[in-house]
């Protein structure tokens, strides 16, 4: 059995199909459920999420970029991350990588620049559904959790829609000698944008598998269609949207080959869910 | 920089070379240090440890085999694991996979059989050294830790030698409905073998990255040369040995595509280091 079968059902396995459909219904806030066709014949079990560095490393002030956007692109066309020196946030979509900064700018990155932390994937959604009525981010996450066949695998999540409001932040560029992650977070620049079209991109990681490796549960970044607003999402209200879900049962973790990583006590405080 | 350079030094980087050599010395219990040649030109950063299922899953009684030895072989020729129903222990060396059981038998496995948990790698050691005087396992691990350029990456460890004593265990076959991992562990069969030639095979995982994913720090299994004794090592005394170390900065985690895994609360108690 693989996740794809739970999502889509299988003519030869009626009971599983029924179970899959039941999992996808039972929601009042979410409207029509659309099961998208598969664009790729590979099973979900061949799908790999690629992760550069770890949450532990980031929380322990290993802020130096060590992997290029070029290499990230060879491992995914979709995702999020933290630039070299955590100079803002990273949004990846349709093979393009964007950097947002605390000064409010958003730019496409060069392949030779480096990244300190990232989670990316070649986005191949197995499922999509529409949100037809307004819903805030926390309710959206809780609703989505109930629609997933399991919370024990990795999911890439893309939300394309119109948003009544999005509160997002950009981490400030850190300079050596690096202060703690918490201190950086305290200086993050928070902004709010209203009545905007855009995309949320990110991941859901299993709760317990993640805390030292990645962000547990949901971690989403925003990129508006006009490329004027982008960053790490704190709270939001979705007016209407199409949600795409791409399950993966494999994770490839790439650790930094750098002296700061090798020498870090990796004793930073785990911040928790994103 | 990569780990290989720290191990071996680099003509253009005298200070790093010196540091590497210093890291490799300073031991009284361990004799001549031999730096082996590299058999593969790839850098350590391309090396991948492959892990089937997670420690969380095992500790939460997800004991069903889900991945074949055949697939494991495509991801590594060396390593260890737990068979379907945790019916004993798995030892992999030189591309062959062996299963030991509580009845004391050791046999080579068939590719079509399945495994519930495993960590494997294509073994390509960057470094080797000789143990010339007796040392017990705990001191050996502490000594080895000091020789590593960092404890923040993954290492495959192979110890080929003569052992004064090895206390090892075989996990008992679990039957559905599965009891807890702790209950299985309480019924493990412990044995001791003395004055024997054989191999220890296993891994060292970073302390904090591992606990929910894999065994923190060292996890070693035994296979004697005569294939008569094998299992998970609890304690040992090495008489003399050659130790091979294979560093890796990438980990690929493969989660089970099974209903028991999908439905598990993953709430098993984390047992800790191996």
TrEMBL record, chains A, B:
Q: Which InterPro entries match?
A: Acetolactate_a_deCO2ase
Q: Does the keyword Transmembrane helix belong to this entry?
A: yes
Q: Alphabetically, which GO biological process terms does the record hold?
A: acetoin biosynthetic process
**One Pfam family linked to the record:** AAL_decarboxy
* Record carries keyword Oxidoreductase: no
The catalysed reaction is:
(2S)-2-acetolactate + H(+) = (R)-acetoin + CO2
| EC number of the protein | 4.1.1.5
Gene3D superfamilies, from UniProt?
A: Hypothetical protein, similar to alpha- acetolactate decarboxylase, domain 2
Named in its record, the pathway it takes part in is: Polyol metabolism; (R,R)-butane-2,3-diol biosynthesis; (R,R)-butane-2,3-diol from pyruvate: step 2/3
Q: Which domain of life is it from?
A: Bacteria
One GO molecular-function annotation for this sequence?
acetolactate decarboxylase activity
Name the residues that span the membrane: 21-40
- Family, per entry: Belongs to the alpha-acetolactate decarboxylase family.
Write down what this protein is called.
Answer: Alpha-acetolactate decarboxylase
Give the source species: Gloeobacter violaceus (strain ATCC 29082 / PCC 7421)
């Amino acid at each position: 059995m693989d996740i794809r079968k739970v999502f889509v059902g299988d003519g030869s396995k009626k009971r599983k199909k029924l179970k899959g459909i039941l999992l996808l219904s039972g929601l009042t806030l979410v409207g029509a459920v659309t099961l998208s066709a598969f664009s790729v014949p590979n099973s979900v079990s061949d799908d790999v999420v690629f992760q550069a560095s770890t949450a532990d490393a980031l929380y322990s002030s290993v802020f130096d970029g060590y992997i290029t956007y070029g290499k990230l692109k060879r491992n995914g066309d979709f995702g999020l991350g933290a630039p070299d020196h955590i100079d803002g946030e990273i949004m990846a979509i349709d093979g393009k990588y964007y950097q947002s900064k605390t000064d409010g700018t958003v730019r496409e990155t060069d392949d030779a620049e480096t990244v300190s932390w990232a989670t990316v994937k070649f986005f191949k959604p197995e499922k999509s559904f529409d949100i037809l009525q307004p819903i805030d981010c926390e309710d959206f996450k809780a609703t989505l959790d109930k629609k997933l066949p399991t919370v024990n695998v990795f999911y890439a999540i893309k939300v394309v829609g119109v948003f009544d409001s999005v509160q997002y932040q950009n981490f400030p560029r850190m300079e050596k000698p690096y202060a703690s992650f918490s201190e950086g977070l305290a200086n993050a620049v928070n902004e709010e944008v209203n009545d905007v079209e855009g995309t949320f991109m990110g991941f859901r990681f299993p709760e317990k598998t993640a805390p030292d490796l990645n962000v547990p549960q949901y971690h989403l970044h925003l990129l508006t269609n006009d490329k004027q607003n982008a960053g790490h999402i704190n709270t939001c209200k979705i007016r209407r949207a199409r949600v795409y879900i791409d399950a993966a049962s494999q994770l490839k973790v790439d650790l930094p080959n750098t002296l700061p990583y090798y020498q870090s006590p990796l004793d930073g405080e785990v911040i928790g869910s994103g």
